[in-house]
Amino acid sequence: MKLGVKKDEVKLVDYTPEWNEELNRVKSNINLNIEENRIEHIGSTAIKDMSAKPILDIIVGIDDIQNVDEAVFSGLKNLGFLRLRVERPNEIILAKFTDKTYEEKTHYIHLVEFHNELWDNLTFFRDYLNHNEDARKEYLEVKLEYLKNSTTGVNEYTDYKEEFVKKIIKKRTS
């Protein structure tokens, strides 16, 4: 299994259970270096049989996004995770890279407040697709449709999937 996506690259690879093995390895390292132990695998690599960009998404639940203990950041930095300059409400993004060129990311960590709306939405989406084969197939079709026209544009790719993602998340509250 090779993880890694270059800046603004959009590519899908076939599902592999090795993604879960890698999550468990990273999770055990995070548990050793950070007191916050609320860690979940999210994103397409967490969905069984789903083709995905070869980058692992991990959500880490913290108590207060406005007051994250510096020990959390230093612990993650010791594991190779660097804070990105991505501005998102109620979320801090960190990434791990293949090397010092910082061109190819292998992992994302999403720091969010434990069991806030964002945490619940991200984990619900994963769980719903893991338990619903039709939804998995539909989501894969959306992803492949984007790739028919482009293999770049991460933001555009995310926007392209947004309608489907919102449709699934809406089921959480209905």
UniProtKB/TrEMBL annotation:
Entries under InterPro entries matching the protein: GrpB/CoaE, NT_sf
Domain of life: Bacteria
SUPFAM superfamilies, A to Z: Nucleotidyltransferase
A Pfam entry, by short name: GrpB
Gene3D superfamilies: Beta Polymerase, domain 2
Sequence intervals crossing the membrane: none
UniProt name for this protein: GrpB family protein
